[in-house]
Write a structure and sequence with these properties.
Elements: H1 13-37, E1 41-47, H2 53-61, E2 69-73, H3 88-91, E3 100-104, H4 113-116, H5 122-141, E4 145-152, H6 155-167, H7 177-184, H8 186-200, E5 207-211, H9 215-236, H10 281-289, H11 295-303, H12 317-328
Parallel strand pairs: 1-3, 1-4, 2-3, 4-5
Helix pairs in contact: 1-9
Length: about 350
């Protein structure tokens, strides 16, 4: 199965920036619609180490209402949990009706890590397939929408990403000796993944294999899959879909065609990088994920009254006012006298 996956699939930066804002707005609208319709959603992220699960989840949740979802990063069971039926610790993390639960790793650890690392007797992990299928069938019968992702990269790509992360002081902690040990067992894990996908793919809980070599392609596919499943869930229950409207983050207005209501059109700074705004790397990365790459784009959004950048972590009202003041005077934000 996985040998037929085309890991060379990619999405251009321009197309990604055009599609992502619409997808994020659509997902936000569907979250509200599912809340009103009492439709619960369970989203599972499985995949190779360094395949991009964490960054995809981060992007996925930026525009969601935090009151309507919970994120669960699954680790090894705690002492008291091993004295309960093995699925118990996942039952208690299920979302209420209308809410969403996102699992960074999940109950599939029973037939992956616990199998390959021999943490669980063979008889037990083999029963895990039946337990998982029954568990998910029960959830589906209770009205849950189940979305399951396997983020797939090659062994060569994984090694390359590990080495890149180790060179970055802010990222090196992500790569532990056990990660390299899992990498050495890539082929063993591959066999376990193949069997897992074959035996647990179902009508009510289908797997979506995400070609994750190109991050833009992977993130877009994740959004589109979740949106499609949530829309299907609403329609199956007879609820109308929320109206699809243009995103506020679509194509930036050109200087020759300023937006209506924009009293002061954005000043032209050329292709001034976001670093000129004096923001730290984490915030610059968040802006880039939102499709904002230059000072001009920030200026254009502010000029037409789009303050959506405030929803991005790290940009508060005070920072916004300083940026607006600098733009009004024609100076690049981030200079010593401005910030």
């Amino acid at each position: 199965m996985l040998e037929k996956v085309d890991l060379n699939k990619a999405l251009s930066k321009r197309e990604y920036k055009e599609r992502l804002p619409r997808l994020r707005d659509r997902l936000s609208d569907l979250q509200k619609a599912c809340w009103d319709a009492n439709v619960p959603t369970v989203i599972l992220f499985e995949g190779w180490d360094a395949a991009g699960k964490g960054t995809s989840i981060n992007l996925l949740t930026q525009r969601l209402d935090p009151r309507g979802f919970k994120l669960h990063a699954i680790q090894a069971p705690r002492t008291y949990e091993v004295h309960m039926p093995w699925l118990w610790r996942f039952w208690v993390k299920l979302p209420n009706y209308g809410q969403m639960a996102i699992f960074d790793r999940s109950w599939y650890g029973r037939v992956l890590v616990e199998r390959v690392e021999e943490l669980t007797p063979a008889e037990e992990w083999r029963k895990g397939y039946r337990d998982i299928v029954d568990f998910e069938h029960t959830l589906a019968d209770e009205g849950y929408t189940i979305v399951k992702f396997w983020l797939h990269i090659s062994k060569k790509e994984q090694k390359c990403r590990f080495k890149q992360m180790e060179k970055d002081p802010l990222e090196s902690w992500h790569v532990q000796p056990e990660d390299w040990e899992h990498h050495r067992k890539y082929n063993q894990y591959l066999l376990a993944v193949e069997e897992m996908l074959e035996r647990t793919d179902s009508e009510w809980g289908p797997w979506t294999i995400v070609e994750a070599t190109d991050k833009r392609w992977a993130r877009t596919k994740i959004f589109e899959t979740i949106i499609a499943r949530m829309e299907e869930a609403l329609q199956d229950r007879g609820f109308p879909l929320p109206e699809d409207h243009p995103s506020q983050e679509e194509e930036e207005p050109s200087d020759s065609e300023p937006s209506a209501g924009a009293a002061n059109p954005p000043l032209a700074f050329g292709e001034t990088p976001l670093s000129a705004m004096g923001l730290d790397a984490r915030v610059v990365a968040a802006l880039a994920d939102a499709g904002i790459d230059t000072v001009e784009q920030v200026a254009a959004r502010l000029a037409r009254g789009d303050h959506a950048v405030l929803k991005i972590d790290g940009i508060g009202p005070k920072r916004l006012e300083k940026i607006k003041a600098a733009l009004a005077r024609g100076r690049v934000p981030g200079s010593a006298e401005e910030v």
